[in-house]
Amino acid sequence: MPMKLTERSFVLLLLLPATLFLAAFVAYPLFLLVRDSFYEVSIYAPDERVFVGVDNYLHALSSSRVRESALRTLNYTLIALTAEFVLGFAAALLFNAMGRRSEILRTVFAFPLMIPPIVAGLLWRFMLIDNIGIVNHVLEHLGIIADSSDISWLGDRDLVLFSVALPNIWLTTSFVALVLYTGLQNIPSELIEAAKIDGASALQVFRRVTVPLLRPVIAVVLILRGIDAARAFDMIWIQTEGGPRFASEILSIHIYRNMIRYGNIGEASAIATLFMIAMVLVSSIAFFTIWGKGTSQS
Amino acid sequence: MTQPSTERATGLVLLALIVLVYVFPYAFLVSTSLKPPSDALSIPPTLLPQRISFENYTIIGDFPVVQRSFGNSAIIALLSTAISISLAIPAAYAIARFATWAGKLFLIAALVTRLIPPVSVGIPLFAIMRSLGLIDTHLGVALAHSTVSVPLAIWLLASFMESIPSALEEAARVDGCSRFGALFRIIIPVAAGGIAVTAIFVFLASWNEFLFSLLLSSTGVKTAPIAIAEFKSQYGIQWGTMTSLAVLYSFPVIIFSLLMQKRILAGMTMGAVKG
Questions:
Q1: CB contact burial B230-242 (16+ within 10 A = b; e otherwise)
Q2: Are A218 and A289 in contact (CB under 8 A)?
Q3: Residue A126 and residue B241 in contact, taking contact as beta carbons nearer than 8 Å
Q4: C-alpha distances in angstroms, A227 versus A279, A280, B63?
Q5: Pair B25, B123 in one domain
Q6: ipTM score of complex
């Protein structure tokens, strides 16, 4: 080791191992992904590649199955995100209003955070089985449905996207609630008091004080949860593997299947590249609109 | 004076509702795993076992691949934790202590990796691991898991290290300690709590990971979640055994989380709220 290590070279030396790792196992794979998207290449003979230009992209964009799974990814994300945000925000406000007494509630609420995603998927699949699942049994008992085979949660093509979102909502509403609760706790109570003294109603306080101050936290929560929902794979895979007849096949499942079942690396790479670009674009736009507005106001 | 009691009643109703929705599904899973296998799908479903039976657990002995998958998951998670923590400590230290463009760039790059769908990295990783001869090896899967964990660990560790007063290292440096000495003798011991929390996060991330394991492992190092997911296709759906496997698989996660609940929640929410 040299006697005098300048600060600059010390910092670069510290960053070097992680940089090399991420270059080799994240950046290089992404380079290969984009490169392969211009080739026709099969998983069974990866060395025999044929350059096909943008054919894979054209094929992907003109395929109705790809378009449908992109739309499904969007719908699934919106379903999960809306439910998690509304329920999570309501719970956070409730905990905040209850003050210290909410501790037991929060502890119970945090329970799903400790459950592995595939167990959550499996669990809900088990509870939603037609005819014999406990959910339909309870609904029948309550008189909401006439017969326990009336709702086919995972077999009905129109319903399945909601059903596969259930474990996701169950698992992560608590995360949203606890993050927003921490955000609410950080709002100085003097601000709320001052607004009340000025004669603001509870709703006005919420809209004019709470929400604007909470904006950065809301932005982070929505973006983090949105990204995770859009990238979902395991919870849906374990419930339906994308079925019935592709009705719950979102993009990551479609790409996986294209690669593994059909061995189509070129086209899978093209769709995965488009997916990645869309994710970066949508999250950047979301980030700058929600967060950007908040900081320019204050 | 009715207000406190109605408030109390509302509180209790809410508690009951939340317990029902949030704890019941898992309790039902545990209860099912303790029924005799043939009762897993009884009509109508019963909440509690008519008689306690451990058959769903003992039957796992007949499936060596499934048994081994738990060991594989543990080895891979430990490897991935070792890789991620040893790469993340120096990087996090550089970012937390020295305001350089390289550090900032790094932090942004780490954030961007979160946006990338795992399947986009997974496809080419398959080819890379194949050419390195790492398909179906513990190291191959652990490296893949680390692509997610290294950025996560850097973020968490950087925020832990920022809270350590820099006067500590300055004093050590004045006393003749080298830059690396200050990192190893001062920062790492002081940040040990934060490192432990980060290590648990990284361990659990690997233990829970599904897609990379599915792509990169076959019979040799198949991890527990894959073995559980495939259990149905190979032997027909045997819900009894699946519930007992799910309980065994989630058990370490629940124990870890309960032990460190406060710190884990703080860690999970910290990054977001500081944002």
A1: ebbeeeeebbbbb
A2: no
A3: no
A4: 7, 9, 37
A5: no
A6: 0.87
The answer to whether A272 contacts B117, with C-beta atoms less than 8 Å apart, is: yes
Judge whether A155 lies within some domain: yes
Per-position pLDDT tens, chain B of length 275: 445 677 777 777 877 887 788 888 888 999 999 988 877 777 777 778 878 888 889 888 888 888 999 999 999 999 999 999 999 999 999 998 887 888 888 888 877 888 888 999 998 999 899 999 999 999 999 999 999 999 989 988 988 888 888 888 888 888 888 888 888 888 888 888 889 888 988 999 999 999 999 999 988 899 999 999 888 655 567 888 889 999 999 988 888 877 776 665 555 554 444 43
The closest alpha carbon to A25, from B230, B128, B42, B104, belongs to B128
Q: How far apart are CA B111 and CA B154, in angstroms?
A: 10
Domain that holds residue A92: 38-297
Element (H, E) at B207: helix B192-208
Residue A115: phi and psi, rounded to 5, are -105, 130
* Overall number of domains in chain A: 1
In this structure, which amino acid lies at residue A284? Answer: S
The enclosing domain of B142 has a CATH number of 1.10.3720.10
DSSP 8-state class, residue A54: T
Q: Shortest CB distance from A7 goes to which of B98, B109, B254?
A: B98
Name the one residue in this structure whose structure tokens are 């065994």.
B248
CB within 8 Å: B146 and A221: no
Calpha distance B168→B181 (Å, rounded):
12
- Cβ of B208 and A112 within 8 Å? no
E strands, chain A, where?
39-42, 45-51
**Neighbouring-strand partners of residue A39:** A51
Is B173 found in the same domain as B203?
yes
Q: Is A187 left (phi over 0), alpha (psi -120 to 50) or beta?
A: beta
User: Using CB atoms, which residue from A8, A123, A255 is nearest to B26?
Assistant: A123
Amino acid at A112: P
Q: Tokens 């698992």: give the residue.
A: A171
Nearest by CB to A220, which of B122, B242, B272? B272
- Domain region containing B27: 3-55
Q: What CATH number should be reported for the domain holding residue A61?
A: 1.10.3720.10
Q: How far apart, in whole angstroms, are the C-alpha atoms of residue A225 and residue A233?
A: 14
pTM: 0.88
The structural domain count of chain B equals 2
**3-state SS class at B119:** helix
The HSE-up count of residue A18 (CA atoms within 13 Å, CB side) is: 33
Is B117 in the same domain as B225? Answer: yes
Handedness of CA A158, A159, A160, A164 (dihedral sign): positive
